[in-house]
Amino acid sequence: MITLPSKDRHHPIETQRLLASNKRAISVDESDEPAESKKEQSIKDDVIDILKLGFPIFLSSLSWVGKKTTDTALLGHVSQEALAAAALSDLWTMTSQVLLNGRILGVLVGGAIGAGNNMLAGIYLQVSYVVLFAVSIVVVVAWSLTEQVWLWYGSDAEISHMAGFYAKALSIAIPGIAPKKSCIQK
Questions:
Q1: How far is 107 from 113, CA to CA, in rounded Å?
Q2: What is the tally of structural domains in the chain?
Q3: Residue 61 and residue 74: Cα distance in Å, rounded?
Q4: Tell me: the pLDDT tens digits for 104-135?
Q5: Residue 164 class from Cβ within 10 Å (0-12 exposed, 13-18 middle, 19+ buried)?
Q6: Domain extent for 172
């Protein structure tokens, strides 16, 4: 029989919750159910939970790739210049879109929720949206300068102009892209 320390002022709230959950886990482990059956059920539950979380992320990523593939296929039928412009635009926009990847949010919010501090998780989310808004402005400006960037690199003026237009059209999606990339950690 394992005895756990009593709740007192020497243990923070998080530690008291952890000790209480361990006590419940220990009492469950002492049941008559075989350990192998519990382990198999736990693995099945974990796999189901992962699939429930991963499927929407998979669909979101697949839809983005599908959109880009459709754009490329349709532009290939328009003209070689349009396809070249889309390729230049995609190179610049994908390079600068990396700034919208806020990977630290999952770590901070996960730790706060794990500690039972939902208010701190909300604060982290709100602060990340303010920072993301500021970074999004930088990305919109970068995408708006696509034509000038490719002219500076010596690309054809007509193709650079079309690439700039395509990037400006894509910048309309930034308000939807930024929160998605921030909240959905791949």
A1: 10
A2: 1
A3: 20
A4: 777 888 888 888 888 998 898 888 888 888 88
A5: buried
A6: 79-183
Note the pLDDT of residue 14: 55
Residue 1 domain flag: no
Name the nearest CA neighbour of 114 among 28, 15, 34.
Answer: 15
Whether residue 170 contacts residue 143, with contact meaning beta carbons closer than 8 Å, is answered with yes
CA distance 104 to 185: 9
Q: Is residue 174 part of a domain?
A: yes
In a domain? residue 29: no
Tokens of 177: 């892209």
Question: Does residue 18 lie in a domain region?
Answer: no
Q: So what's the pLDDT on residue 13? A: 59
65: amino acid identity, one letter:
V
Residue located via tokens 């959950």: 21
Helix spans in the chain (H): 13-29, 35-78, 80-97, 104-114, 118-144, 146-152, 157-171, 174-183
How many CB atoms within 10 Å of residue 46? 10
